[in-house]
């Protein structure tokens, strides 16, 4: 479906792109958090565009992102159905893609070299509580899924190198006073955050986290019943 706010019979793509209002500081905060997650920044002939894809379970989340960046997006999120060639199971996702625009160049300057990287001091200088929340909604979850779970959380940073993940833990510890360490998931590196930081993290994310994404948060450890 087309974005009715910008498309009409006399729509001029070039003029529209030229007259777009620059990204706001809030939009940039969110984009930095998303780039630490699954956001895909693509180089076009002259500029850059962003692409985001989430499963059916996160449909509300991707429409939320659409509402934030809709000035830069002509098409609403669209459904993609894929068939697993081995199991024949169907998987449904929703994809969101922006127009190509120079406003996204700042992301390339921060993250591309030429592939996606996390340079030193990026978290220290650019990550905010809002950005951290979008990073968590995108790529975070419970550290412990056992019945008597703790309060720790994990950030799935498997696409980054061990050196980058280690640097991120150091900067998270210094900036937010977290207790984090590097863990492994199937030989890839992830960030684990101690349950001792849970109340602090919850307070920090509470103004920004979507109700539909709160299921990713740990619940308090269940106390043993006394006889």
TrEMBL record:
<protein>
    <recommendedName>
        <fullName>Homing endonuclease LAGLIDADG domain-containing protein</fullName>
    </recommendedName>
</protein>
<feature type="domain" description="Homing endonuclease LAGLIDADG">
    <location>
        <begin position="28"/>
        <end position="199"/>
    </location>
</feature>
<dbReference type="InterPro" id="IPR027434">
    <property type="entry name" value="Homing_endonucl"/>
</dbReference>
<dbReference type="InterPro" id="IPR004860">
    <property type="entry name" value="LAGLIDADG_dom"/>
</dbReference>
<dbReference type="Pfam" id="PF03161">
    <property type="entry name" value="LAGLIDADG_2"/>
</dbReference>
<dbReference type="GO" id="GO:0045292">
    <property type="term" value="P:mRNA cis splicing, via spliceosome"/>
</dbReference>
<dbReference type="GO" id="GO:0004519">
    <property type="term" value="F:endonuclease activity"/>
</dbReference>
<dbReference type="GO" id="GO:0000373">
    <property type="term" value="P:Group II intron splicing"/>
</dbReference>
<dbReference type="InterPro" id="IPR052500">
    <property type="entry name" value="Chloro/Mito_RNA_Process"/>
</dbReference>
């Amino acid at each position: 479906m087309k974005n009715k706010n910008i498309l009409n019979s006399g729509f001029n793509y070039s003029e529209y792109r030229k007259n777009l209002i620059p990204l706001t500081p809030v939009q940039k905060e969110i984009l930095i958090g998303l780039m630490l997650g699954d956001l895909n920044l693509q180089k076009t002939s002259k500029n850059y565009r962003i692409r985001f894809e989430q499963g059916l379970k996160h449909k509300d989340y991707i429409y939320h992102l659409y509402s934030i960046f809709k000035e830069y997006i002509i098409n609403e999120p669209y459904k993609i159905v894929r068939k697993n060639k081995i199991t024949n199971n169907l998987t449904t996702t929703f994809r969101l893609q922006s127009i190509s625009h120079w406003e996204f160049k700042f992301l390339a300057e921060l993250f591309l070299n030429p592939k996606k990287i996390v340079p030193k001091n990026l978290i220290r200088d650019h990550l905010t509580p809002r950005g951290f929340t979008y990073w968590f909604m995108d790529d975070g979850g419970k550290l412990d899924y056992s019945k008597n779970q703790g309060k720790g959380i994990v950030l799935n940073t498997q696409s980054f190198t061990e050196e980058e993940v280690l640097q991120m833990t150091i900067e998270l510890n210094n900036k937010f006073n977290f207790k984090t360490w590097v863990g492994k998931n199937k030989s890839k590196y992830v960030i684990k955050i101690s349950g001792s930081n849970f109340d602090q993290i919850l307070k920090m994310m509470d103004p920004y986290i979507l109700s539909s994404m709160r299921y990713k948060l740990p619940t308090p450890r269940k106390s043993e019943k006394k006889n």
